[in-house]
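Page 47, continued from p. 46.
Same chain as before, 994 aa.
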Amino acid sequence: MRSSPLPRMSRRGRVTIGVLVGVFVLFTLLGWGVNAWTDWLWFDEVRYTQVFTGVLATRLLLFLVVGVGMALIVGGNLWLAYRLRPRMRPHSAEQATLERYRMLLSPRLGTWIVLVSAVVGLFAGLSAQTRWAQWLLFRNGGTFGVKDPEFGVDVGFYVFQLPFWRYVLGVGFTAVVLALLGALAVHYVFGGVRLQGVGDRMTNSARAHLSTLVAVFVLLKAVAYVLDRRAMLLEYNEGAKLYGAGYADVNALLPAKEILAWISVLVALAIIVFSNAVMRNLVWPGISLALLGVSAVAIGGIYPWAVQTFEVKPSARDKEAPYIERSIKATRSAFGLDGTKTTGYAASNLVPPASLATDTSVVPNVRLLDPQLVSETYTQLQQVRGFYDFGSKLDIDRYSVKDKTSDYVVGVREINYGELTDQQSNWINRHTVYTHGYGLVAAPANQVVCGGQPYFVSGFLGEKAQEACSSPTEEITAQQPRIYYGERMEADDYAIVGQTGDRNVEFDRPTSTGGEQYYTYTGEGGVKVGSFPRRLLYAIKEQETNFLLSEAVNENSKLLYVRNPRDRVEKVAPFLTLDGDPYPASVNGRVLWIIDGYTTAATYPYAERVNLQAETADELTGRGTFQLARENVNYIRNSVKATVDAYDGTVKLYSYDDTDPVLKAWNKAFGGDLVLPKGDIPAELAEHFRYPADLFKVQRNLLTKFHVTDPGDFYSGQDFWQVPNVPDAPDSGQKQPPYYLFTQFPGQDGPRFQLTSAVTPNGRQNLAALVSGSYVDGQPRLEVLELPDQTRISGPTQVHQQMTNNGDIRQQLNLLSSNQAQVQYGNLLSLPFADGMLYVEPVYVKSSSQDAYPLLQKVLLSYGDGGSYVVLANNLGDGIKQLVEQGKRAGAGNTPPPSTDGNPPPPTGGNDNTPPLTGELADAAGKVQAAIAEVKAAQASGDFERYGRALKTLDEAMTAFQQAQAAAKGSTSPAPSGSATPSAPASSAPTPSG
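Result:
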């Protein structure tokens, strides 16, 4: 009995489904069309339409080519399987069951094949269009001029060609597998493949069809083995803990891959021949496939494992040495470390020199303002209105004022829409009245006034400053100080500007008389929305009817959107990875946002692979700096400097590394003039370029290992460094951020604006080196001041603990934090000076009262090993004088230096015939000796809390000894051997390692 076909859907049901599908498609296409149209208008505004059209055309091309290709392959094989169906099928229960499906499919088989192929093609096309970047690099990439050390192939093949070839191979595998499964299903349904009954289980035509697809799959596997040989130079070498092919890979796995490739070709031929020409069955083809699997396990798995286990591991240091050297060289080249200048720095001077008081290159430029802490101060002193905001972290830049160059803490007074009141937040006010901020506010980084406040020199809301603690006139001028584009802007913070008549409606700034001044935007930027079609378009995009109904939108209106500078550059140059810390600068009278752009790659052979998000994270991440995406790279260049005009949003991309092959490929992909040449950079703009922070973090972290260039030493790992944690919160696990300084390091011709960071030995806390990044003649330069391996100089964490745990200083700090006030520590600066180390750490105090802000109250200074010479002064000048005085007393024979409370140390013994101590003096001397021993033990243990208690005990013992000595009425009894002031053990005891 023949089964009845499946019941048909009613006409009403079909109409309902059709309407629902039509509505879904309509709204989908409408949304896509609106977004595409508004994107085109935005790109037209910024004059980068070649990016929009280039990316869109490439995505459509890949969607169509891959989608149609996949659909044709799958659909063609489905149709072929149907055409090859047997005309006569033996009677069996299995075939009777399948008959109902044949009756369902046969009348509309073409429709089913087209439907299945279209779905497969749709998903394949959607996946392919995301590969637009790979295709553009594949199409436009050139050469690096550097060959890989194994095959002698230019690195450009790995960066530009290999990723796309691997994707194409993956598409081929997917197409063959889907075609094979689909063809097998059609053959089964229409009787070409049977599971039951007498005779052959497969017709000759079905066997030929399916075996050919299997053979193609095996041939693709042969191609995969060939590409895998090249890709092995990108894999992780577990033996050497580095990337790139190691000894076992090169000597066992590479030959195995080649052998397996040839075996795959032979197996593919065997499948076709034995299945269709000789034996016409699947026994020998099955045996061939089994042999391929066994070969893959034995040759590609067991043999390399045996070489690694029995030959490499027993002498890994020697066996892996050449390959470790390859990885070191490739990593240093890929990350721009090969030009690093390393200089030894003995840091042997532990006594503050007199030249500290007369220095003109380092001390006068010491930065006291911490950009993170004083942002609250800027907000409270320069906010003026509650909706103005400076963000949670300010920026550091340098300016020449009155023929003197120094670094300044700068911030932009922006609109923060989140701080608008409920009345101010209605649609009219939010988008047409409160449209912009005002002023670039700057203060010298090495100067405070009025009890610890910054000395503001720019960004005033009138012609002259009203505050008594500010410069009387603007010293850093901006002819157009209005800020329509800034870091505080979110995606929905659009502004509608441009009014009719003479009436200004945009709030500009408060006036000195207590009133308010209004303004109308006159810039070139912005999308015109005066016409009804444009208003309707953006009403749909923003889902806001006021675009159509409000009188605030008129024939002169422009729409400003994508107002965050970083988002703006990212949209214009989607191929760039952008630094997380844009900064503003006053250039030729305009406020410009400067953003560093990186070109990256993940397929540089033998180079170390890092995750940008992890490598750039530190204390400031998310607190004024943007967190980078989780992007794995093994090549990076700061190839682009981008600017965004804070007034009209103009975006410009300048090439900063004309030699970068990746940037050349991208520029070529978008017409050749997307990125302006380096020679077009205005000189005044170039003066504000600074070494990018995120690139520096990546390079610094890599230098902690890759400063070691000897393969044997690298394998042992004994000379590795690490980045210290935040000095005032070492248990937080957050890395100490690098800091910008305008200073001069040993070996430099003069002061430079440079990004610096201290590093410590791996697992220890003493100072290992100082790393700095700067620009010299427009070229990036990395420099390392490396201290001796067994240096006694303390690292940042140790120095902070030693300074703050000093007995006298701790008492003063406790007084500062009393009366419901909080002590906050600024950047701890490590400064090499006079063959020694000068440490400076500003101390801020913030009261607990409402609207309080941090004020710089004290400065901690230390010289030498971090514990011997320590002062807490009211200002930098006084602190330097106190350090110099300590150094003079030490040079006069009073070594170690006196306590910071000014009490002189007990005189040391001058000869061996001194009579022994007796009575109370002997008891006091014994307590001093015991306290010294405890200080040394605490310092060696690395327990800073114990170390602080020991210093306090030593201070008390020294006071008791001095009192006993004074009571001895003219006694000349010597001090106990080894006695010193409370800070002395820090210079004689071993450096703590914990």
